[in-house]
Amino acid sequence: MRFHFVKIFLLVFGLLVVWSFAGEQMAELRRSQAAAVEAIRSTAVTVAPNSSPTEIAKASNQGVDLTRIPIGDGRISTAPQVGYVWSCRTRFRTSAGPYANSGAWVQADGTYNLRTKPTVKGSVTWPSQFEIALSDGVRSIIGNRLPKHPTGQFPIARNDPAYAFDTNPNSITSEDYQVDLPAMPEVADTAACVPMGRIGVLRTGGYIFNALDVWGKDAVAYEIQDSCQGHPERHGAYHYHNLTTCLEDKIEGSAQVTGHSALVGYAFDGFGIYGHRGEGGKVLTNADLDACHGHTHDITWDGKKVNLYHYHATWEYPYTIGCYRGTPVVRSNNPQGPPNRQGPPDFQGPPPPQMPPPGGGEGLFF
Q: Which positions ≥6 away from 60 have C-beta within 8 Å?
């Protein structure tokens, strides 16, 4: 009987030891995940109240001529190519579109003047929800697609001077979504084309679309957006085609004055999107980046220094992502509904109808 009691005692003691060890391991895992999430949150995101003259001034001070940005029309490829968008869509609308009345900001030498381009008036605030969480090697981005900064008034009012150039009839609407990305993405064996519609998300909460409009033209040059360079498409998704000037292009490390830009968003293959500046604070151009608009070196990733591929924003076309260098988890060209891993395939069928809807072509935009 005494021997049997000892066996039971040892068994219970062993189970308690294992339970205690497992509990400590789980607690350590939770602490690690919490630290990673805190590292993401601690990378300060400064959202300007509407447009940010500071970012415009920074560009001018760094030698960027925002009055003569080359228009990217025709720079659509069928394979990765520096300075191009490798678009999954291969055919585009051929009608004139709503931009026949483009103003003096579009210049005869093939450039446009970002400083004089009209913007949609208004300052509308939104109940934005945006959260990033890490768990078991997955980065979950959860939001309602509303931006943290004020936007212009959409639909564009008839008495808004911007209406003469773009009659966008769409309203900004919210829709809950969650997209799960690899926390440590890997470069794929081959690059992938980018669909029309969302290709990533900025830390403002708004989607990033590729550089093209539905006519296959340079959306940043022609489309009339608000002073944060955003606008809604037909399903109400507020989005940008470039890095908004309403998100401060901060430097990695709060104590630094110059250096590499901080993280500003995520592409839907999991890789980070960083601001306009590379190592040493250099303002990057297409010549500094690969065909997908990125490169590899040490960056701050979830609070740690790692050698990892990443994308950069540039002031010139294609502005953010030319193709996916990783494996995309969102393949839908339809921004209606939450992003998911099983979205419909990218559009490759016959060209859409030639006539824009009443009120201008913005109702068709992806």
A: 66
Quick check: is 9 in a domain?
no
Q: What is the mean pLDDT of the chain?
A: 81
Residue 291: how many other CB atoms lie within 10 Å: 18
Is 118 within the bounds of a domain? yes
Per-residue pLDDT tens over the stretch 303-343: 999 999 999 999 999 999 999 999 999 654 444 443 433 33
Kind and range of the H or E run holding 232: strand 230-232
The dihedral built from the CA positions of residue 16, 22, 28 and 30, taken in this order, carries a sign that is negative
Query: What is the rounded distance in angstroms from the CA atom of residue 145 to the CA atom of residue 177?
Result: 8
H helix intervals, the chain: 2-42, 53-61, 219-222
Total domain count, the chain:
1
Token pair belonging to 271: 């890789």
Residue range 194-249, pLDDT digits in tens:
999 999 999 999 999 999 999 999 999 999 999 999 999 999 999 999 999 999 88
Residue 74 token pair: 């025709």
Residue 4 lies in a domain: no
pTM, whole model, 2 decimals? Answer: 0.79
* DSSP letter (8 states) at residue 146: -
What are the distances in angstroms from CA 346 to CA 25, 45, 349?
43, 32, 9
Domain that holds residue 61: 47-364
Q: For residue 39, is it within any domain? A: no
Contacts of 201 (CB under 8 A, 6+ apart): 141, 143, 179, 207, 208, 265, 266, 268
CB distance 122 to 103 below 8 Å: no
* Structure token digits, residue 216: 């296959």
Structure tokens at 277: 């500046």
**CA separation (Å) from 267 to 42, 321, 329?**
20, 8, 10
The H or E element containing residue 312 is strand 304-312
